[in-house]
């Protein structure tokens, strides 16, 4: 139904069927829209005739006649795609008015002012949407009339003025479009339908679909519905309401309404509306009816609904219902609550949760002390609505284009607008947060920000935004924030501050609903979820987030610590094997204590048993530990040029030569990974000894046996691994002999070079486990150096390149392959290696420790390929737990 | 037979069967050798008994008895592996002598001096080979006796002195070995056999096998043969002879002999022997018999033979025959002559030719004028034997270890030795040429150098080499050449010069035998052979060498030329599209004229039709065309430090910033290849226009239609190729419209990234051809940056790494994968891409343009995979033609 009728059309149809009060209407299908485009923007044969037939039925249902000068039927014409695209497409209200039918409206309502107000609104809207006229001229003329008549709002304009305005508006429309304003109501309808079809392919809509990965070939439906009026006095009104709080997930009606107003007044945020709870006092029967409808809709759709309604002279009409957008926190709470209310199953709760939203829940928030300090220092500026949760800090920017420019350059920006409109979306996409001076919790800014997972403070009336001057002033003070000044906004509280406030991590342990959801995910998923962690504190966080092991512990970070680096440099620059060994002997106790810390941390909190820990031996080229070559070069050149300090020069020069000898053209493909260990076995031997001694010590101290897995990086040929394994086994034998008790460990390798994947059958014969290093594998498979590619061309590949002779940019890659695994290429190697590895060694354990381990789409792929676990950064562990469960559900559905 | 008996044993057995005069003997098989090693260095059961039984038969045949004090049988014990390893393994002569049997020898020969000389030689040799004694002490003692008796050569030592020497030698042997010298002749035999077995695994033998890629598990046979003596007077002698001249291939007996000498005197080069043609005068009957035997052996073996013979009192004995090592030139001439003599088929001539030798034939030689100038300048030093053809220049080095050290560091060295021995081979392997003061054309130095394809001047008696002082003096002058001084040697003429003489290319057109051989190869081979050439002069050479197309014309070399580089830099640093276009407009005519030159050159000399030319659009990162960053950094730092010339500083700083902005961490994987064209389409468009306009111009001028193939580098995703193709087609349309006549071209891509190979089915849908760029494909598949890897670890991977706890080095890779394609990994991708490409686009043309295109083993693989052509450097085209024919022959044999 949604495919054909769009979300809105399907909602209206279902509500009608369920006997809810819905203004009569009909829907032109998405199929018709697509046929319209295929026919070169012509209505497909028969479509118009069917529409007219449907219109006749609406006439019968309402007892009104379209174009009738006594009892005219007025309609709204709205778009409605399969997936909600709030504010992205166009709507025309009050269609069916002309100089004759407006008289009929006067007769029907007995309200001349209302009728001419409706008429002028129609002309204004139709001109903008259908005739593509510049709306500003209409606004100016309206302001002119308000001034002239001394009216402080639209509602105060007398009927006489409105009559004149209608005439003026028609003239403006005629001048701008070069043709008389259409008086034939059927022509009005036809052209409005065409305009809705056309709105499917306007820039805003395309941008939105690109960002939200909605296909471009779905088309939009057109909903034609008889008008009801919320602006017929104070027993009329219009509003939007969620069946639950879209920010917190609480089970309560949540929304806003305006009495004596039409729908667009609420959405546009021009008048600040009342909270829905006030309706209980203002129109108690309507409120009660709305609550009952909310219950029925939730039972029907088994999801939280976002409803639009209008009250016409005390009578409630439902205009639309759809699944409500919600914050990450609300999404989790609603899903978990609905399971407990018996509305949906646990699987359904998993299926409809969005793993990337989960990630947002775990994002840092403002440090409370720092925030208190900001208050004390007088940096608090104002408070608005907490429209979308999360904290953001960045440079204030006052237009979307500038936000896009800076944001794409990596500058954190907060977009500040009087209010936002669909024209601002491209800037919102790259901002860290949104601040608006006007509009409520369901305003454009708030809805879009929640959808994007961006912090948003809306309707912040304590600031006044001057777009042209690119600044905002704080009301009642002389504080001015200009473009480029730092500000911080708290989407959880609505507070706005000057300057940057540092952030802290949220408390995962207190997220009880999330914990519940993830515990269901754990029951469903087949993939293990491990974490990448180099330090005990990371490991601790990983366990808290539910990781069942360390999939990647990088030992080189340990080398970088301040007190160790000089020893590491001594080791690298050693002139004799003895010097090198002496440095390594100094490093051994450091490494051992690092590993002790990690082994002690990685304990299953339920069973008390040790989790597996995969420790990767040293990987980066040794020159990464040495001083920077170019800095040395500059120093030496300077010392030479000035002639000062010949002793220092000599020393620096010697160091420069040593560093120069180790430099590489392409260090990514140079002397690193297992190649280091093969050339300098004493490093590998030291690391292995540190690992095994640490495991023995922990076992002795705690009585628990660490699950040690030693991993060799950058293997390309089985002989490399074979030789390293031989060396390691010798060390293990030594350590065992010294300790008098055997140390157990598994031995494995990264699969991060194409050749390793291609010859995985050979490599599997000497490995107990494989861990796919999909970062490096992506680099070598594509021939992309990530350091160079992302800045220089990769983002253009994803966003689209200027293509000479073509109107549109050409996209080379659908997604950034470093974020989501490239299934055709890199994925093919992963699948091949998994199959070959298992065939040669059925006991082999397969995991992945690249960044893709925390990406839901990639996790789905790894599940399909049949890996044993994914390993990702600790923060992404909850994401991975959920995504892994979703992958299992989707696979088992596919297999059905 | 050769497998079991080794080359020598099989030769002797065959000669015996053919009724040739061979001293009776028997052979212990390679199987026995392997069984000996398997049993932990124990004779396998029954072996010794069989040897004794065979010895009994030899006793019957010779009428002598082993160990008999009156009529003793003496034997030689020699190694003999399947593949000839000259001088690599050990031999014991005169075995069976002790204080008693020596009396029998006196009785037999009536020559006491001879008998005791044989005895002392036996003790000396047995001590060195079997008892592992230091040979120098024996030599010193011998010299002492010569001095004491006033003998100027061994032959002048009187019997009495020799008797004493025998006693002294036995004492030396006992002292060094810690046990009495064995007097039991059976013990002598047993231990000699063991020593030969052991010699299979000595360092020299292992090194030789590694270098020549001979498997280590073949084992050696042991040949036990009754002794004949060439040192029984002037009607006796010993020599070696080739059935044809191993240097030129001329059909004539070629070799040397010494009268009154034993075999090792010739091989060791201690006395300078006579040319074989002198034998016609000294022993005419023997000479005639030898000629007849040579004819019979060639008919039997259908190959040139290398024979060892001894004349004992006028009677000729054949000791050994084997296929003779020969120079590249000789190899070709012998093969072609033998086809014309009806001895072998064309296929056989192809099969037994060595493609890498062909390459040597085409190596540069000394420039004649430069050589004449060297003569005029008095730089000529001396003339020796032209022992192995070719020219070499480099630093003189006087010991093999130093040669190895410098040679591996890339320094060209010429190894200068009094004479060489197997202990020098490791140094010879890395030298550019060999110069010895002593020894003939069949001396160790000469034989090994010819085998290695190294120029060698041997027996250069005009110089005197002082090993210890690391210098040589030119006899009759005061010229001294010390270690590190440059010298040049001409292996074709035997000349030696001081200083470096520049080289020129050989004249391929005059190599008529080679031309004939290659024309047969052309008939047999299935693979096309194309060449990589960037300039018309390279293209011309390629056609001369028989290339049938250009498989890779790199356009960026054209950018590097002096007058163009400033324009290229202007193009790269352009601040506006207009500036960039202006620079490109200037480059266009240059590129067009480049392509015109190449199209005009690439014409089939037989048919007059154009050969295909694959032109690759710009590939390297643009910063390669800019000034070096570090040099700029030093300049700027210097200008800053000295405070001089603020204008220059400002300018340099701006340039530094521009260059800095373009630098990359890993340029190999950065903004290069098709990525450049996608980001800067105007470059691709200019290049395409230049190519197509050039083709049109050539067609108009010559009436011949160039076969244009435009190739896109570094494609990883089909969308990249699709977009470039779209842009190119637009240019082609424009050029066609402007010219009024259509221009034809094919469009294809390099397959040089793993992802391209993995998704070749997708890519093939938009490509007319693939060309495998196996250099880059090897880099990305292995994760090896060639610039870094070869110097830093790859050669160690191939040569072997020190392995802690192991006595031997551990080899990681069997060969350098940049020289010979890695079939398991990179080859797997090539095969996959060929199959997927053909399946998706059956018309697709498949070639390879990496360096592997000129490597015989890789060519065999490309033939098996079914590529259409290989493309290599022009010099390697003849190699590839031959190797491709061999691949076809070997495949059709396998398929049988």
Question: What's this, in brief?
Answer:
Two copies of one chain form a homodimer. Chain A is of the alpha/beta class.
Structure overview:
The structure is a homodimer of 896-residue chains. Chain A is α/β, with parallel strands linked by helices and 896 residues long. Chain A has four domains: 2-227, 2-Layer Sandwich (Dna Ligase, domain 1); 228-353, ATP-grasp fold, B domain (D-amino Acid Aminotransferase, Chain A, domain 1, 2-Layer Sandwich), CATH 3.30.470.20; 365-504, 3-Layer(bba) Sandwich (Glucose Oxidase, domain 1); 523-620 and 672-780 and 841-895, TIM Barrel (Alpha-Beta Barrel). Helix content of chain A is 48%, strand content 17%. Chain A contains 36 helices and 32 strands. In chain A, helix 17 (400-408) links the parallel strand 15 (391-397) and strand 16. In chain A, helix 24 (577-601) runs parallel beside helix 28 (681-702). The longest helix of chain A has 25 residues, at 577-601. The radius of gyration of chain A is 33 Å and the shape is elongated. The mean pLDDT of chain A is 91. The interface between A and B is large, with 70 and 70 residues. Chains A, B: InterPro entries: ATP_grasp_subdomain_1, PEP-util_enz_mobile_dom, PEP_util_AS, PEP_util_C, PEP_util_CS, Phosphohistidine_dom_sf, PPDK_AMP/ATP-bd, Pyruvate_phosphate_dikinase. Chains A, B: Belongs to the PEP-utilizing enzyme family.
């Amino acid at each position: 139904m949604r495919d054909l009728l769009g979300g809105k059309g399907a909602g209206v149809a279902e509500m009608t069927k369920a006997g809810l009060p819905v203004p009569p209407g009909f829907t032109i299908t998405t199929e018709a829209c697509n046929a319209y485009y295929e026919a070169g923007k012509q209505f497909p044969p028969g479509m118009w005739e069917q529409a007219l037939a449907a219109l006749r039925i609406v006439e019968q249902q309402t007892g009104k006649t379209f174009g009738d000068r006594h009892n005219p039927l007025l309609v709204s014409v709205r778009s409605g795609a399969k997936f909600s695209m709030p504010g992205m497409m166009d709507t025309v209200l009050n269609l069916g008015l002309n100089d004759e039918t407006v008289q009929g409206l006067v007769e029907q309502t007995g309200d001349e002012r209302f009728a001419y107000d409706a008429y002028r609104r129609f002309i204004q809207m139709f001109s903008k949407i259908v005739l593509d006229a510049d709306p500003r001229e209409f606004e100016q003329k309206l302001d002119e009339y308000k001034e002239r008549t001394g009216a402080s709002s639209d509602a105060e304009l007398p009927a006489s003025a409105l009559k004149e305005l209608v005439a003026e508006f028609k003239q403006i429309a005629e001048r701008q479009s070069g043709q008389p304003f259409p008086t034939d109501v059927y022509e009005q309808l036809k052209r409005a339908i065409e305009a809705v079809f056309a709105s499917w392919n306007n820039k805003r809509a395309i941008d939105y679909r690109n960002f939200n990965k909605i296909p471009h070939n779905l088309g939009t439906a057109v909903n034609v519905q008889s008008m009801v009026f919320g602006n017929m006095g104070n027993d009329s009104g219009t509003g939007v309401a969620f069946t639950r709080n879209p920010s917190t997930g609480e089970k309560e009606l949540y929304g806003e309404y305006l009495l004596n107003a039409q729908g667009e007044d609420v959405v546009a945020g021009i008048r600040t509306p009342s909270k829905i709870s006030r309706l209980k006092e203002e129109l108690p029967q309507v409120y009660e009816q709305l609550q009952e409808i909310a219950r029925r809709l939730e039972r029907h759709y088994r999801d939280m609904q976002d409803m639009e309604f209008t009250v016409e002279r005390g009578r409630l009409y439902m205009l639309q219902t759809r699944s409500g957008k919600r914050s990450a926190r609300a999404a989790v709470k609603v899903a978990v609550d609905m399971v407990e209310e018996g509305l949906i199953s646990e699987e359904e709760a998993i299926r409809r949760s969005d793993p990337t939203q989960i990630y947002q829940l775990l994002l840092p928030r403002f440090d409370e002390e720092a925030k208190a300090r900001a208050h004390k220092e007088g940096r608090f500026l104002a408070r608005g609505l907490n429209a979308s949760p999360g904290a953001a800090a960045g440079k204030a920017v006052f237009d979307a284009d500038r936000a896009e420019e800076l944001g794409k350059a990596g500058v954190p920006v907060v977009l500040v607008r009087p209010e936002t409109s669909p024209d601002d979306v491209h800037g919102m996409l790259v901002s860290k947060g949104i601040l608006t001076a006007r509009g409520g919790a369901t305003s454009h800014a708030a809805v879009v920000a929640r959808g994007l997972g961006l912090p948003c403070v809306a309707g912040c009336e304590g600031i006044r935004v001057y777009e042209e001057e690119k600044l905002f002033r704080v009301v009642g003070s002389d504080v001015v924030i200009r473009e480029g000044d730092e500000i911080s906004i708290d989407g959880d509280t609505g507070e706005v501050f000057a300057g940057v406030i540092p952030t802290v991590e949220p408390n995962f342990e207190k997220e009880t609903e999330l914990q519940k959801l993830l515990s269901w995910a754990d029951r469903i998923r087949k993939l293990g979820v491990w974490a990448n962690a180099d330090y005990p504190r990371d490991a601790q966080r990983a366990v808290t987030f539910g990781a069942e092991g360390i999939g990647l512990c990088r030992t080189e970070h340990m080398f970088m610590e301040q007190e160790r680096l000089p020893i590491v440099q001594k080791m690298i620059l050693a002139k004799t094997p003895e010097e090198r060994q002496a440095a390594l002997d100094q490093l051994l106790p450091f490494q051992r204590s690092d590993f002790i810390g990690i082994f002690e941390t990685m304990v299953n909190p339920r069973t008390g048993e040790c989790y597996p820990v995969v420790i990767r031996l040293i990987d980066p080229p040794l020159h990464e530990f040495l001083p920077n070559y170019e800095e040395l070069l500059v120093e030496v050149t300077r010392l030479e040029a000035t002639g000062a300090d010949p002793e220092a020069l000599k020393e620096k020069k010697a160091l420069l030569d040593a560093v120069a000898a180790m430099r590489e053209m392409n260090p990514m493909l140079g002397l690193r990974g297992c190649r280091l260990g093969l050339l300098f076995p004493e490093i590998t031997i030291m690391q292995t000894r540190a690992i095994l001694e640490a495991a023995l010590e922990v076992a002795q101290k705690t009585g628990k046996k660490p699950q040690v897995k030693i991993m060799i990086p950058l293997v390309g040929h089985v002989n490399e691994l074979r030789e390293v394994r031989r060396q390691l086994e010798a060390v293990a034998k030594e350590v065992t002999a010294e300790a008098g008790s055997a140390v157990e460990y598994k031995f494995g390798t990264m699969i991060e070079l194409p050749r390793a994947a291609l010859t995985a059958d050979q490599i599997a014969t000497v490995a107990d486990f494989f861990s796919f290093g999909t970062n490096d594998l992506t680099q070598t498979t594509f021939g992309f150096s990530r350091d160079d590619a992302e800045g220089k061309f990769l983002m253009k590949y994803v966003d689209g390149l200027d293509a000479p002779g073509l109107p549109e940019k050409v996209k080379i890659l659908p997604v950034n392959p470093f974020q989501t695994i490239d299934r055709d290429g890199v994925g093919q190697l992963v699948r091949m290696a998994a199959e070959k590895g298992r065939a040669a060694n059925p006991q082999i354990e397969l995991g992945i420790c690249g960044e893709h381990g925390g990406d839901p789409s990639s996790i789905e792929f790894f599940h399909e390929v049949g890996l044993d676990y994914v390993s990702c950064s600790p923060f992404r562990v909850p994401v991975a737990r959920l995504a892994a469960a979703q992958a299992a559900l989707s696979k088992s559905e596919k297999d059905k």
